[in-house]
Amino acid sequence: MMPVTQASDYAREVDNIYMFITYFGIFFYAVIVLGVGYFVYKYRRRRQNEETPDITHNTALEIIWTVIPSIPLVVMAFWGFNTYMQARVAPADALEIKVIAKKWAWEFTYPNGMSFGQEMHVPAGRPVKLVMISQDVIHDFYLPDFRIKADIVPNRYTQLWFNADEPGEHQVFCAEYCGRDHSNMLAKVVVDTEEQYQQWLEQKAEEAMNMPLPELGKLLYVNKGCNTCHSIDGTRIQGPSFKGIWGQTHQFSNAAPAVVDENYIRESLLQPTARVRAGYEAIMPSFQGLLREREIQALAEYVKSLK
Amino acid sequence: MAEVLMQRTPAALHEPEGNFLTENPGLKNWLFTVDHKRIGLMYFWTIMTMFFVGGVLALVLRTELLTPKTTIVSAEVYNQLFTLHGVIMTFLVLVPVIPATLGNFVLPMMLGAKDVAFPRLNLLSYYLYVFGALLAVGAIIGGGLDTGWTFYTPYSSTISGGVSIMTMGAFVLGFSSILTGVNFIATIHKLRAPGLSWYNMPLFIWGMYATAVIQVLATPVIGITMVLLLMERLFQVGIFDASLGGDPVLFQHFFWFYSHPVVYIMILPGMACISEVIPTFSHKPIFGYKAIAWSSVGIAVVSFFVWGHHMFVSGQSEFAGAIFSFLTFVVAIPSGVKVFNWLATMYRGSISLGAPMLYAISFLLLFGIGGLTGLFLGTVAVDVHLHDTYFIVAHFHYVMMGGTLIAFFAGLHYWWPKMYGRMYNELWAAIGCLFVFLGFNGTFIPQFLLGSRGMPRRYYNYLDQFQFLHVASTIGSYLLGVGLVIMAVTLIVPLFRKRYDAPNNPWGAASLEWTVSSPPPTHNFHHVPVVTHGPYDFKAARRLEQMESHS
What we know:
The complex is a heterodimer. By secondary structure, chain A is an alpha+beta fold. Chain A has helices at 9-42, 59-88, 194-210, 213-223, 262-270, 293-305, and strands at residues 95-102, 105-109, 119-123, 128-134, 139-143, 148-152, 158-162, 168-174, 186-192, 249-250, 258-259.
């Protein structure tokens, strides 16, 4: 057996194939070693000019030793592929967690739209589906205890799913070389009971809720990905920078000028195309239904704090 | 051993007219030589220099891994060192080592030819190799790179440093490899001695032929890929970089379309050496000549259709995964068949355990592990777990070092007397082989265990639980280093001692290169030889030799 925790039915099935190949390998390796050892001893050269028989080939024997070992190989190919397909197709009711990989950290986003650091909490006994994308180079989500792994590529979603047996902690590695701190790009999967999981999720959400508003806003600015289009240092990315905009009067391509205040920020989040800043494209997605009231306030406070 | 001493002829008998080593002395005559034997030796010493550098790097890497955190170098340096180790060992050592050294030296003589078909092209190939090697090593000075030898995009297309120079180095080295391939194909087709039909050729030639075909067909792809990577870096053309609309996984397809066949560019010549050594030292014809010959060709063909097994977790389609997995098992079969053929050759033979045979046996035992562990990786579900872990690292070292390099050492000890006309001390050669064998297993068996436990490769820091196996592996690597030093000293010392002079045919082999003096005359043969017996008909070869010595 592989001396690694088997954390799911799938891991056990992979290990069954692993053991099948191991037995096959040991058998054939024994044939080689014993063959070599026996022949070297039995047929050692005893004197010079010792005569040897002129055996050049034996077609029947050669066909046998080509065909017979091929049969277990076919078993490996089919068994391996069938099992692999199980790991590819997630059940429709799976809990979906979004994974973003970047040099050299992970971000796990839960169905409630929130993310909390380098530990992924999942409930035991419920399929979990990971939808993964990279922000920079290729990374790889590797969960050895579950025998699953998949590259995380920029500009393309890849998926994994697993179903943990029971509560426990499992190591996550980045398995595709991604630069200096590749070997520090670690994370944990913490399997809770369904109850613990729900409690943990609520507690974490609560913590986030009880944070001072500007601090929560700063967290959301990163977690919600505002930072991909809006800088806080005045540089222009896709959208206007947040630096020092509070209280200023903005020009719009489709509306009368207006002052940046709480109402403007709220509208920009929920109906971003209502007023489009002059000189920018209307590409901002709506966050309608994705932000709580307090989170909207937090973001406004955060923008206010950026002098 | 005893046999060798008894057959030893006085030096004066086979050195009156001079040989390729002593005629036309002087550095200039060596540097501008078109003699395949001299080019073979220049390749040999250059490649061995690179092997030494790559080996020292490996020992530094293993030393760093003695502790889970920093031991002797920083993370940046470690990442550059494993990249350089990989590049040097694959592109500068494993690809050319057997064809360019042993192949260059013995292939024309085995065919009964004076030289390869295009001697000047042969010299050009050597200088391209030197130029490419300088570029590759210069990339480290020109900013360094830490991409790994696989240069995966978008990492390689976005970081600064020496990637561009390294890319050009790989491009130039590709041409060196292609030219050797073209040369061998033409030589084998056109310069065979009278009587040397295709099925009368030593299996070494068949192996070289299959290798040359892959070199010519696959290497241009890596050349093109390197140019595209260079264009991506210099002009942001957007082929591989997702942020420019490219596809990073496309690079992996291109890369492995060359780099899987290149595995067979490395291993087929190794198998070719083994197919010479085992029958000679078993004093019995090779078993299943045609099966071995055609399995080389079969491997060469199928090797082009398995590249996707490096990419089971890359996001390629499941359907592609199924096809590549199936084809991977298909390519495993001819390799297995060869192992059975070599075993059957030893059956009822008369086996003497000279150093070449000891290395050939090591090859069977190590390549056996390399091949069988490949089955885990061809099986998709199991590969997903083992991919990019130390299991892979151990597997390809068993195939590349346990296979190719050990077979090269077998061939080197086999043809060394022909190359320099000197025998070596059999006892020390055996001790060197033992150290190499034990050290090699000591290094890489722990890595199989690390990998199956989930230790990813290219990790500078690792979890504490892996330390014991890492320390074991490092101790093994030191033992391996000692073995290689013993081997080098054993081979080099006799070059300075005349009493080790070698006879024409120390092993009683039957192919043409053993009919000329050791070292061979500059033009190999005084008359065009006529082949009257098979390459493994040792009885006929001995009768001929006896007739000649009586006349």
